[in-house]
Amino acid sequence: MKLFVFGLSYTAQAFIRFKHAQWSRISGTVRHADKARQLQLAGIQAYPLMEEFDASGLAADIRSADALLVSAPPSNDGDPCLGRFREIIASADNLRWIGYLSTTGIYGDHGGAWIDERTPPSPQSTRSVERLAAEQDWRTFSRDAGKPVQVFRLSGIYGPGRNPLVSLAQGKAHRIVKPGQVFSRIHVDDIAAVLWASMQRSRQGAVYNVADDEPAPPQDVVTYAAHLANVAPPPEVPYETADLSPMARSFYAENKRVSNRLIKEELGVRLSYPTYREGLQALYEAGEYAPVA
């Protein structure tokens, strides 16, 4: 099988690693040539969209792909992949699966209540408004071109190199406390497992929330990471007085618990890391906590 990826991101590369031997060719896009060269050393044909590249090669790779993963972010002009490559994707006769990576941010704030795929979207941030618009663009494309598009709404992503253990080791971890606040999260390897399961049971128009079993207060996750590393956790800081960037503060404006029932019942997914505890334990055992001198 051949895979093409728009936006060879952290999550997309985890998906590639998950079943690497299943792909006879892997190609995709990045922004710049330096990252393209790095990925090419790993056997991935990467095209740097912000610089000159072989456009005929990119078109040929899209047209011959069996699966297409869209990890590139949208803009206020819509989805850049459809905006630039719609006709080429529509002409890809081998495509049997398209996965669009979105966000649970499109649901907005629910005061800590449980939500699922039937919950009407109510995005609050500009980023989430753009994501929802991109979802709708892909659904329209799916209907018009007859291509099997599935949408995956991801919770907060963590994994190797991107987790509270790393933040602790770098002295960048914080315990921001906002009473009643919880976040849903998901290990990047479990995202990969969900995407692979969807490929085996492709359903045009499907929408899946991708989250683990236990939404939790963010300060509890940092405390558990500190326990694993056998260090004192950073002091608790009230949300009202915390020095947060506008983007970080926007995350705290949304409070919800994301149900993962559908990925289990329809796709048969069994999470390797059902809560942050299993995920952080595995990361710690893999050597993720390495204090910086």
From TrEMBL:
Q: Which InterPro entries match?
A: Epimerase_deHydtase, NAD(P)-bd_dom_sf
- NAD among keywords: yes
Xref: CDD domains: SDR_a4 (cd05266)
State the UniProt keywords alphabetically. NAD
Domain NAD-dependent epimerase/dehydratase: residue ranges: 99-211
Name of this protein? NAD(P)-dependent oxidoreductase
Q: Which organism is it from?
A: Microvirga aerophila
